[in-house]
User: What shape does this take?
Amino acid sequence: MIPWVLAMMACKPDVSPNETAPPDDSPSGDSGPVAVVDEDGDGFPAWWTTDDPTLADCDDSEASVTPETERYVRPGTFWRGGGENADTQPAREIELSPYCVDRFEVTNRQLVTLLEERAARGFDNVTDDGQTIYDFDDIDDHVPERIERAEDGSFNVLDGYDDHPVVEVYYWSALTYCADNGKTLPTEAQWEKAARGDTDQRSFPWGDEVPDCSQANVRPTWEGEGANTVEPCVNDTVAVGSYPDGASPFGVLDMAGNVAEWVADWYQPQYYETSTNVDPDGPDQGWDGYPADQPSLARVSRGGNFATGYAAIQVFTRYVEPDWASSNGLGFRCARPLTPPS
Assistant: This one.
């Protein structure tokens, strides 16, 4: 259990399947009362009966899914892009259908559960098509792997790191984890809306205030004189949910710093100039210009990590990642597509 979660629990509404909610609780904006539905009996109404992300149940058939684990992102527009980088222009309003997003990044313990389940089905640390899920062989940085293989072939998390976000995973690792849990990776647009909210053009999940170490696990500054000598807040990952003051408007945590996050899209520098304004899902193929000395196609990560500065953790900043990459500062969270009941 993440230590502070109990103190942050949303108040459960007193609902029953036959109760009706006020007219303005309809996420579609329709007039008239909406019947409150709580099929799994967890005390939270189904997402299509409320647009309050602290109450909406993203999977009303599963009691383990609550607003403490996934947050509902209501349909409508938000402001995508901004800043001075050419690849985040033009900034404009984008419309998205409803979806849910994990409140926390996927942890080491959660990935070990996946590895164990897949190994039992004959997929030992590989995807269905044989790609490696966890990079046990990474030796290109000073941070040791947080998941180890025992002599008997089992998977173990290093003491103290169960609730830290998993790193050293590939794009396809994230896809596999999300798919095995009935979810997807968020698109860039979905990630940015969940981080930014839908009411303003803020630069960080909490607003426009440049962060300090109470809001995010990050290098407090990066630009200007002496930038490379400024120490990160922790210089390592920390347990997910450790920075409640850095929550996004939808109550999603750790969307700035700690670890960067894979998103679903390929990366193209000029994509924002040509993308649709409704449910954009990225270009058809990745840019082939990064890194120049190694053949690859470019994917995208968002949010920055514990060693990056405030410019990198702005909600609109796009990070370029080789499609074959893993990193000690790169993890992921999942999103849940939503289809209204017929």
Q: What stands out?
A: The first strand starts at residue 20 and ends at 21.
